[in-house]
Write a structure and sequence with these properties.
The complex is a heterotrimer of chains A (104), B (217) and C (365). Chain A contains three helices and no strands. Helix content of chain A is 76%, strand content 0%. Chain B is mostly helical and 217 residues long. Among the domains of chain B are: 106 residues, Four Helix Bundle (Hemerythrin (Met), subunit A), CATH 1.20.120; 44 residues, no CATH class. Chain B is 60% helix and 0% strand. Chain B is globular, with a radius of gyration of 24 Å. Chain C has one domain. Chain C has 13 helices and no strands. Chain C starts with a helix and ends in a 20-residue tail after the last helix. Classes of the chains: A mainly alpha (104), B mainly alpha (217), C mainly alpha (365). At the A-B interface, helix 1, helix 2 and helix 3 of A face helix 1, helix 2, helix 3, helix 4 and helix 5 of B.
Chain lengths: 104, 217, 365
């Protein structure tokens, strides 16, 4: 195995990303879907961080964008949870398959 | 293989495994716990990369804040104890195949990527010698010398970088707002606004019942 | 690299031992303090005059207890809870310097790191509460989560105030800036840091789930809260975590406000001379000074616990969101405006020591 470099980190990031995509697709619990989104965003963060470490040009940018991703993921999770809670209040379930009407 | 590499493989593979476990696990609270380990493992990767500030932010905002919210959400929406919602076997088969294909595609594109187009990087081997956090702070404060290639990221570069590109070495202006300071502030305020909005949205909308005024708290 | 690894391993072993031993000491101290405050003697027989072997006896009893997992519980989460709680509080010690450069991990952002890892401690409690499959435990866990997440906000704001004054998050540097006599301590720096210390200490008590904020385990309402179903070794892990984080938050308070490892009575020049010529003496004395200061703060937490009655859960949340949070915001605003006003009103007249950030090695470019 060669030395750990950019590619190895990107591969780990890709595992997170793909897990997130599959998670979004397969979970029927709305909060499970939300967890998939978190995984996808984390995969992206790992990539940003790896570029920040291994490439001079992204040294600051990589970190800044990773920070933005973390903060925006927090914001997204808060809103999504609020929506899920509202949905639960109305329908008493968090099954995404039962969310098929376009009204509140 | 150096110690850093061994640590990378341990932390990285654990993180990847936990991410897969998030998908595989049916029980939603256990999912959240695997997600916790994934996020903490990601923070560990950041520390290994020498990005201390990023790792600590990940732990503080993501693990300590967002994930607590998620677990709260799980507990508030569970109709019975240890609730499960299952997907069918066919769905699983499709998901696994698509997932493997997607991963193969991404992995191949990483493995055969040609990074030589990127500017030559001359960074020290030990990430601890890179003063990442300090550079981040300086860049946010407008020190243009640590922010070499803003134009690469498509963000309008600051004056100092432009001067460097044109070859004229000028005295950088003393109080030069960084390209990232304003977005950084906006993002923080944005998070606050979003949290207030989420709290408003999630508020239980009860019918107004006139209650006798309670004693002061 | 391997030498570095060995040093880190030794540091880890020393730290684990320290956390465990100080937990043993604190449990004994808690019993004695509680006894004295309630006009009793506390333990007196085990191990001689002051009952100082009481905790060891307790520990043996705990080890010998049957390890029970309720049938209703989620085994995996139930087992995981105590370890998560302990890991969170133990990790904080990695970045906590005990003396000048005596720290497991030199970190530029040590303070932020400590706050971040201590924020993860709450998961142990949530898991214990949920995994136990008992309503008392669940109530305790949920209360605890709500409380800790809320109190983190004013706590972090209060921590920012001395950081503003110091201009760094590096605990080593912050403590070094307070060298010399005690009026150099940041608690006496300006009115805002003085008030910030008390606000911080209140929030810290709450975030360690200590009385009067110990709603998570409120015996009179919730049996024992989140650890109702735990016994034996797992239960003692929760206690190690609690005492560990008590010491850690006291360590932060000492570092930020109370001069770190400086005695406050020896002038800076003399202590600097000792550091350069008698390094071992300096380290031993300063480690002792630091630990003593932390112990005093922990003692105050115990004193408060056995003196004040417990709040109700709504009172706990009100205290945080309606009082401590606005207070912290006002203090932060004041602390950031004060230097500006001071320098505008008295330009170059009296120099309040608003220090510049310390010089770092230049960025390698």
């Amino acid at each position: 195995m060669n030395n750990v470099g950019l590619t190895q980190y990107l591969l780990i990031g890709a595992v997170l990303f793909v897990s997130g995509v599959v998670c979004m697709a397969i979970k029927r619990n709305a909060i499970g879907v939300l967890m998939g989104v978190e995984l996808v965003l984390n995969g992206a963060t790992v990539n940003f961080a790896a570029f920040a470490r291994f490439h001079d040009a992204f040294r600051v940018e990589g970190q800044i964008f990773a920070l933005f991703t973390i903060v925006l993921a927090a914001a997204e999770a808060a809103i999504a949870l609020a929506i899920v809670l509202n949905f639960y209040n109305n329908y008493l379930t968090v099954d995404v398959d039962s969310a098929e009407e376009l009204r509140g | 293989m150096s110690v850093g590499d061994i640590l990378f493989w341990i932390v990285g593979l654990m993180t990847a495994l936990c991410a897969v476990m998030v998908v595989v696990t049916q029980h939603i609270v256990r999912c959240a716990i695997w997600l916790l380990f994934t996020l903490a493992g990601t923070a560990g990767l950041f520390f290994l990369l020498g990005l201390d500030f990023l790792g600590a932010t990940q732990l503080f905002v993501y693990v300590g804040g967002t994930l607590v919210l998620v677990i709260f959400g799980v507990m508030l929406t569970a109709t019975g104890p240890f609730l499960q919602l299952r997907a069918g076997a066919g769905e699983w088969a499709i998901a696994i195949i698509v997932g493997l294909l997607l991963y193969g595609l991404i992995a191949l594109s990483w493995l055969f990527a040609d990074w030589s187009k990127l500017p030559e990087s001359a960074l020290p081997d030990d990430p601890r010698q890179m003063y990442h956090t300090e550079q981040l702070g300086r860049a946010l404060l407008g020190d243009t010398s640590v922010q070499p290639a803003s134009e690469l990221a498509g963000v309008p570069g600051s004056l100092g970088a432009a001067d460097k590109a044109s070859g004229k070495l000028q005295e950088p202006p003393k109080r030069q707002a960084s390209a990232f300071l304003l977005p950084f502030e906006i993002v923080s305020v944005h998070l606050l606004v979003v949290l207030i909005g989420a709290a408003y949205l999630a508020r239980a909308k009860r019918k107004r019942v006139v209650v006798a005024p309670r004693e002061s708290l | 690299m391997s030498i570095q690894l060995i040093i880190l391993l030794i540091a880890a072993i020393v730290l684990v031992t320290f956390v465990a031993l100080s937990a043993i000491f604190f449990i004994w101290l808690e019993r004695k303090v509680a006894g004295r405050i309630q006009d009793r003697l506390g333990p007196t027989r085990t191990g001689g005059k002051f009952g100082w072997l009481q905790t060891v006896a307790d520990g043996i009893k705990l080890l010998a207890k049957e390890d029970i997992i309720p049938a209703n519980a989620d085994q995996f989460l139930f087992r995981l809870g105590p370890y998560l709680a302990f890991t969170g509080s133990f990790l904080a010690y990695l970045a906590l310097p005990f003396s000048r450069d005596v720290v497991a991990l030199q970190m530029n952002i040590a303070l932020f790191f400590m706050l971040a890892v201590m924020a993860t401690e709450v998961f142990g409690v949530i898991l214990a509460g949920y995994g136990s499959g008992s309503k008392w435990a669940l109530f305790g866990g949920m209360r605890e989560a709500a409380q800790v997440v809320s109190y983190e906000v004013p706590m972090a704001l209060c921590v920012l105030i001395p950081v503003l004054t110091a201009g760094t998050l590096n605990l080593n540097v912050i403590s070094q800036q307070q060298a010399g006599l005690f009026w150099n301590w940041y608690i006496f720096h300006d009115p805002f840091t003085f008030l910030a210390f008390w606000t911080y200490f209140t929030c810290a008590t709450a975030s360690c789930k200590r009385a009067p904020f110990d709603l998570a385990e409120a015996e009179s309402e919730l049996v024992a809260g989140f650890h109702t179903e735990y016994s034996g070794l797992r239960w003692s892990f929760f206690f190690m975590a609690e005492y560990g984080s008590m010491f850690a938050v006291s360590g932060i308070a000492t570092m930020l406000f109370l001069g770190g490892w400086h005695t406050g009575v020896i002038p800076a020049t003399i202590s600097e001379w000792i550091y350069e010529n008698l390094w071992p003496v300096y380290v031993v004395v300063s480690v002792l000074v630091f630990i003593t200061k932390c112990w005093i703060l922990v003692f105050i937490m115990m004193w408060v616990r056995w003196t004040l009655p417990r709040l109700r859960i709504d009172q706990v949340m009100t205290t945080c969101l309606k009082y401590l949070l606005p207070i912290a915001c006002v203090l932060l605003l004041g602390a950031s405006v004060l230097p500006l006003v001071w320098h505008t009103v008295f330009p170059g007249w009296v120099k309040l020591p608003f220090r510049n950030p310390p010089a770092y090695p230049a960025a390698p470019r």
